[in-house]
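Figure S7 source data.
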Amino acid sequence: MTTMTTMTTMEPIFFIHLTDIHISVPGKKPLFDLEMSHKLRAACAEIRTLETKPSFVVISGDLTHDGDLEDYRFLKKLLDEEEALLGIPIHVALGNHDFREPFREGYLEEEPSNESYYYSFMANGLRIVMLNTQVPGTHGGRLDEVQLAWLKGLLAEPAPSGTIIVHHHPVMGTPTVIMDDHLLENPQDLENVIEGSDVIGLLSGHIHYHNVGTLRGILCAAADGLAFGLDPSASSNMRFIDRSGYNLITVKNGQMSVQPMTLPGEQRLLYELNVTKIHAEA
Ligand SMILES: [Fe+2]
Ligand SMILES: [Fe+2]
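Tokens for the predicted fe (ii) ion complex:
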């Protein structure tokens, strides 16, 4: 019986990490005249062709671009359809482009409130924690004390195959100063909570390009944006690229591995923003 349990928990677990889908109702197109729902549908179509079927999908925030009620109602319909086609659940976290009240009303279909949104779920012995790093009214990212205390309590009990944390704002440095301004403001607090726990990986987004680092030896991977990409080699400009990526995540023997994926496309430059000039004028 013990052997059977061990075998079960040691089986590889495979799932999908999407981020920054920036969905709007069809026809609204607030970004570069792109229909972001088409990007999500294209990614899900590609995922359906994978030879190994994933167990679930996580989306690490910036679910909508404007955060309007009608955007969340459309997102709910869109993800319900894709869940049915994929045959696996899709779990979401919030980002800086999301707003709690319309999210709760339009997506969760409950009474609107400003209550934060974080939770955990189990899949084949692996625990996934969906955190909320958004700070209402800002684009910054921070984990408040209430959420950190909740996380500490949760991690007091280890999961059979370890824990992966999903959150919007990354914790590790990037190649450009511009994007380092977008990191989680209090990574030390998160580090203190996960130290000595069963956490084996952190998955984030927000910077719209692939980035890998470690926090106390724990693998941290930011996925490319699905709605659009940014150019990580641009040091003073934000270069918006028509590029869509996501990550395949495998957990095997208590270790997390990350396989970056990029959807087919010409990766044309959509828009270039001179951030240095904006900062100088501010
Ligand atoms: Fe984003
Ligand atoms: Fe973001």
